[in-house]
Specification:
- By secondary structure, this protein is mostly helical.
- It has a domain of 30 residues.
- It is 17% helix and 0% strand.
- It has one helix and no strands.
- It is globular and about 30 Å long.
- The chain starts with 25 loop residues before the first helix and ends in a 20-residue tail after the last helix.
């Protein structure tokens, strides 16, 4: 099963299409936008979605 990911707001590039990615990568993206530090090991990787940000 696949999910759709649509992001909109001042932090995101417009009309950017990306390759499929694992959902665990959304957490580090949101943490980065909110300025939160990830202090424990996680499965997600910020690099996977970094290209969607301005």
């Amino acid at each position: 099963m696949k999910a759709s990911f649509i992001a909109w707001g001042p932090n995101f590039k417009t009309h950017k299409k990306i390759k499929p990615f694992e959902n665990v990568n959304i957490y580090p993206l949101i943490a980065h936008i909110l300025g939160l530090k990830i202090t424990q090991p996680i499965d997600g990787d910020f690099k996977a979605l970094k290209k969607v940000l301005k």
